[in-house]
Amino acid sequence: MFHGCCPLYMDEILPEVPIDDLKLEKTFPLLSRDTFEETAPKKAAIFSQQHKRSSLWHKKKSEILTGTVTLLLEWQDTRVIVSGNNNRGGGKHLGLPLKTSLLESKKTRQEHIIFKACQYLGKHGTHQQGIFRINPNGKTLAEMKDILDKGQIVELERYKPIDIAGFLKAYIRQLPDRILPSNMYEEIKEIETIKELQDEEDVRKARNILQKMPVENRIVFRHIIQLLSSIAYWQDINKMTSDNLATIWAPPLLIPDSVQEDPFTFLQQSKVATAVLVFIIDRAYEIFDFASDEKIWENDSSDEDDN
């Protein structure tokens, strides 16, 4: 079913190493001792250099295959959740529109689970190796979902960071729409064309695009990006780079359901969406005005309560 997907990346990123470049003479001709001693180090240096080239090529090839498998697993998990998420509105939070869920928490004077999870993981999860990549315990995840949907408080201190990370990702996946509204997807991809540039003008362009998100979506997006940026900062410990994190989070944050219906289209779009998210994670503190966003959300929520 997925035959031909992987070369989509390899042909672009990894040009084939010419076979002739990897061939070495198997035998030395009969040489004098002086000539042999002069030639042998050169032959050894050539062999060492080309061996390194070959090893690096195969390593990169393996990384791309691993990334492609990760994307396909994310696609599969997302499709299962979307197809089975028909009981929207039956519980207190899961499957409800984002704004409805946020206002429900505000009415009950409880901090929303997204914010709680981001804050908890920011304190206790940034050094956790494989955070967001390692799957949570299935029984624990089901328990946390059940508690939340009954309108009860999920006591995060009872759970491991890996389980909380999996729960946060599962919650975002079960939203009826992506955090980025689908009608903004084409516009957000413009960031991919400026991601290699480094001046302030490019950060401003990215900021202006993200500023168009609905306020509640932007606040949630900002919390998640701030967490991912903190995790990426400790990548030497947790082994999760901004690229690793973007590969995992691009589907539930950015890519619309319509794009995710076909696996080949999904793989194509994931390359762009991942690049966009890497740029946002790496430049988070230049793109977002965190304090201003919080005040806007508080004022907007107050208006909703008054109505």
Walk me through this protein's architecture.
This protein is an all-alpha fold and 307 residues long. It is built from 17 helices and no strands. The chain has helices at 7-13, 19-22, 33-84, 98-107, 113-124, 138-149, 161-173, 185-188, 191-194, 200-210, 215-233, 235-238, 242-253, 257-260, 263-282, 284-287, 290-306. Helix 11 (215-233) runs antiparallel to helix 17 and helix 13 packs across helix 15. The longest helix has 52 residues, at 33-84. It is globular and about 85 Å long. It starts with 6 loop residues before the first helix and ends with a helix. The relative contact order is 0.11. The model is unreliable at 1-28, 78-90 and 300-307 (pLDDT under 50).
Helix content: 55-70%
Instruction: Spell the H/E element sequence.
Output: HHHHHHHHHHHHHHHHH
Tell me, briefly, the overall form: globular
Q: Helical stretch count?
A: 17
| Total E-strand runs | 0
Q: Which regions have little confidence, pLDDT < 50, spanning 5+ residues?
A: 1-28, 78-90, 300-307
Q: Distance between the terminal alpha carbons, to the nearest Å?
A: 51 Å
Strand content: under 5%
Mean pLDDT: 76
Protein structure class: mainly alpha
Report the C-alpha radius of gyration, rounded.
24 Å
Describe the main β-sheet briefly: none
Offer a quick outline of the entry.
This protein has 307 residues and is mainly alpha-helical. The protein has helices spanning 7-13, 19-22, 33-84, 98-107, 113-124, 138-149, 161-173, 185-188, 191-194, 200-210, 215-233, 235-238, 242-253, 257-260, 263-282, 284-287, 290-306.
